[in-house]
């Protein structure tokens, strides 16, 4: 009996000694994506530096972009968060905020921080008057073109308008320079909505109005889908676009099988890497062209789509203060200056002589980021996006006319938005 | 007296030994099932720190059965996928098992090799076929077609396209469109069949080995042809095994998710993909649970149908 008591006492002692309260340092769990944006090595390096400076430890979990949403939800519904800090895609802002899964960060954000980040970026993470994530990744789409093919087709430079681009593509096709001059990510996923959003912007409109109601089935949205369908009908867009995600579209372009595409910022590095690209020196990055009728209507005559991601703190995290310290650190101008592989969110860093010397594409990126269009900020966004994806895809498969597809999508989205919360 | 007293001993021991398994089963099977049933009767949405519940009765079920635009097309598509896959798997599986049941040199090697695809994890299989079918210059199937001069050098076929097969054939084309069959779906059937046929072969081979050779010898003495022997001896005696294959594979095929989701995401909306979308993407846990139960009931119905059709007390 005595022996048993002694053994129990020993076990208890070990537990007490190892309990979190007895450890001076805290531990943070962070969820990040291993896909676009900063690559895992960079994120690990940032975390190592944070650990060195604070003495606390950071456990990083990397998953694919598509797996993040369900992991965050699973963590949010449990009594104690699996992850303290998550990467919040701007399309989840309304959903996670309305479900109280993340905490508002207003009390941490100073007027100076507010001033140094563009309103368009803050806006992406603002819902119900509160900021729910600290801007971290300023991702957006850019225009990529093969200069060599343009010259062979007899043109001096990249197109300024969508109409010019079509003319160049027809010439390329006629001369046999490339079979399908246009490639894109039009598979039935979120990327398809992104493509539709910038194209609607290029025709001078937005997909949803200021109140979050769909307006894409008339005017610019309809013209955008008709344009996409016409590219397929005329054999200018590769039919495999319908099954392409962003990586597959990028592969088409860097392997020299397309003259034009739009994609996220990551493609710039890939197309200039001789290990994977056949178009090094021929491939260039520029501003996305707009419709001829829209020239002169916007500051830079371009339109893009935002893919901003922020760092957010889970509402059920037990380490919220430390989580903020970490968020503040990895999103700081200092860290972003040191990791210029991604577009910095801070205006002061974007405009610094250092950053402009290191990244020669910053002037183009600054113009494009100032011309982004957002996807709607509505709580049932995944459902809204799924409906839009389905009907746009039906039109691209030529199973519905663009007008009928968008009308049906708008009606179904209105029904989802009207559902009682 | 002593014997009677010792009788409950082994029973109690058995109960004690079974208790951990029963407890684990209750925890990981019974409790989640009952909880899912409970959720299916509610509007259940996740929120920070828990799930909000609102009683809905059978509304989640009736919504799918009578008011949802995507549910029945998903059921039709899944049934088509299941039936076509099953027919191909059974035909190939029985054929391969018959060959492997013959005596020939290196038979054990061939039997082991045939099993290899079954050892490939589904996710790896899906990614592998995705690369095989890829439309750009790195697609292995297009590469092979170019090498064999079956496709002109500049032409890449889109294997995972959305064209409806036999579209120009009057009734068949309309039927295919109604079922939701596309080129991509057929390519996925090929990919899935490649992986699963070895399992069917193995099961049928096991069944073949239980058929006594004397039956064939007697039939041969009576002058029965090979075809007659297959039709009147082999297939009838394989019925119990075919029943097992049908039930097992129908269950797996009807709830297919991984290979389709990995290759096509939501573009091929079979019931498994649709359930995941409703439950885990739209976060309607109640509706998602209701759909899971509807799928379960459909599989149960099919299994009962098979048993009724194929179960027999025949013995030899």
List keywords for this structure.
heterodimer, A: 421 residues, alpha+beta, D-Maltodextrin-Binding Protein, domain 2, 2 domains, 3-stranded antiparallel sheet, 12% strand, B: 316 residues, mainly alpha, MetI-like fold, two-stranded antiparallel sheet, 16 helices, globular
Notes on the protein architecture:
- The complex is a heterodimer of chains A (421) and B (316).
- Chain A has two domains: 18-139 and 306-373, 3-Layer(aba) Sandwich (D-Maltodextrin-Binding Protein, domain 2), CATH 3.40.190.10; 141-305 and 380-418, 3-Layer(aba) Sandwich (D-Maltodextrin-Binding Protein, domain 2).
- Chain A is built from 19 helices and twelve strands.
- Chain A has helices at 2-18, 40-54, 65-77, 93-98, 111-116, 119-124, 147-152, 162-174, 190-202, 219-233, 246-254, 266-271, 320-330, 333-338, 347-350, 353-358, 362-369, 381-396, 402-418, and strands at residues 27-33, 57-63, 85-89, 126-127, 130-131, 134-137, 141-146, 260-264, 283-286, 304-305, 309-313, 372-373.
- Chain A has a three-stranded antiparallel β-sheet with strand order 3-11-6.
- Chain B folds into two domains: 2-40, no CATH class; 73-310, MetI-like fold, CATH 1.10.3720.
- In chain B, 72% of the residues lie in helices and 4% in strands.
- At the A-B interface, helix 3, helix 11 and helix 18 of A face strand 1 and helix 15 of B.
């Amino acid at each position: 009996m005595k022996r048993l008591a002694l053994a129990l006492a020993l076990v208890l002692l070990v537990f007490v000694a190892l309990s979190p309260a007895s450890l001076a340092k805290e531990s943070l769990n962070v969820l990040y994506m291993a896909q676009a944006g900063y690559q895992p090595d960079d994120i690990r390096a940032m975390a190592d530096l944070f650990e060195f400076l604070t003495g606390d430890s950071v456990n990083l979990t990397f998953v694919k972009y598509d797996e993040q949403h369900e992991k965050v939800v699973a963590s949010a519904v449990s009594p104690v968060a699996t992850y303290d800090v998550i990467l919040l895609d701007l399309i989840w802002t309304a959903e996670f905020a309305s479900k109280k899964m993340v905490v508002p960060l207003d009390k941490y954000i100073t007027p100076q921080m507010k001033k140094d980040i563009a309103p368009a970026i803050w806006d992406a993470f603002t819902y119900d008057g509160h900021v729910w994530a600290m801007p971290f990744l300023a991702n957006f789409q850019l225009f990529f073109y093969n200069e060599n093919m343009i010259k062979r087709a007899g043109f001096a430079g990249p197109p300024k308008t969508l109409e010019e681009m079509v003319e160049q593509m027809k010439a390329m096709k006629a001369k046999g320079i490339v079979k399908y001059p246009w490639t894109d990510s039009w598979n039935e996923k979120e990327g398809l909505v992104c493509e539709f959003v910038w194209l609607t912007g290029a025709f001078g409109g937005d997909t949803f109005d200021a109140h979050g109601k769909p307006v894409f089935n008339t005017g610019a949205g309809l013209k955008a889908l008709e344009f996409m369908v016409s590219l397929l009908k005329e054999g200018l867009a590769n039919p495999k676009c319908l099954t392409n995600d962003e990586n597959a579209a990028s592969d088409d372009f860097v392997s020299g099988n397309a003259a034009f595409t739009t994609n996220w910022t990551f493609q710039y590095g890939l197309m200039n890497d001789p290990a994977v690209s056949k178009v090094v020196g021929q491939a260039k990055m520029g501003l996305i062209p707009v419709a001829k009728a829209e020239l002169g209507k916007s500051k830079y005559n371009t339109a893009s789509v935002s893919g901003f991601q922020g760092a957010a703190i889970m509402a059920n995290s037990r380490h919220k203060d430390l989580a903020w310290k970490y968020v503040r650190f990895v999103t700081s101008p200092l860290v972003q200056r040191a990791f210029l592989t991604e577009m910095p969110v801070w205006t002061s860093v974007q405009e610094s002589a250092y950053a402009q010397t290191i990244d020669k594409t910053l002037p183009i990126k600054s113009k494009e980021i100032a011309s982004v269009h957002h996807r709607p900020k509505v709580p049932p966004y995944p459902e809204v996006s799924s409906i839009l994806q389905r009907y746009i895809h039906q039109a691209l498969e030529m199973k519905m006319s663009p007008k009928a597809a968008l009308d049906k999508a708008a009606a179904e989205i209105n029904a989802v938005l009207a559902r009682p919360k | 007296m002593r014997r009677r007293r010792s009788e409950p001993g082994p029973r109690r021991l058995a109960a004690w030994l079974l208790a951990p398994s029963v407890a684990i089963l209750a925890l990981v099977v019974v409790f989640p099932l009952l909880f899912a049933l409970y959720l299916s009767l509610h509007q259940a949405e996740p929120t920070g720190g828990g799930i909000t519940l609102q009683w809905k009765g059978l509304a989640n079920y009736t919504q799918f059965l009578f008011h949802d635009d995507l549910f029945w097309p998903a059921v039709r598509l899944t049934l088509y996928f299941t039936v076509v896959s099953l027919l191909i798997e059974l035909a190939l599986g029985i054929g391969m098992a018959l060959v492997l049941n013959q005596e020939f040199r290196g038979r054990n090697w061939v039997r082991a090799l045939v099993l290899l695809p079954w050892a490939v994890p589904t996710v790896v299989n899906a990614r592998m076929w995705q690369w095989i079918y890829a439309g750009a210059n790195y697609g292995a199937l297009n590469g092979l077609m170019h090498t064999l001069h079956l496709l002109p050098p500049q032409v890449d076929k889109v294997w995972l396209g959305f064209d409806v097969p036999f579209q120009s054939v009057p009734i068949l084309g309309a039927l295919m469109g109604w079922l939701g069959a596309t080129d991509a779906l057929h390519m996925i059937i090929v990919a899935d069949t490649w992986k699963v046929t070895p399992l069917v072969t193995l099961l049928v081979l096991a069944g073949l080995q239980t058929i006594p050779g004397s039956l064939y010898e007697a039939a041969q003495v009576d002058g029965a042809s090979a075809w007659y022997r297959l039709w009147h001896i082999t297939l009838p005696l394989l019925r119990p095994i075919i029943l097992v294959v049908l039930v097992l594979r129908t269950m797996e095929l009807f709830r297919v998710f991984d290979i389709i989701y990995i290759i096509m995401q939501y573009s091929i909306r079979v019931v498994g993909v649709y359930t995941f979308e409703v439950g885990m993407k739209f976060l309607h846990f109640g509706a998602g649970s209701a759909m899971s139960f509807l799928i379960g009931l459909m599989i149960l119905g099919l299994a009962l149908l098979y048993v009724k059709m194929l179960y027999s007390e025949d013995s030899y």
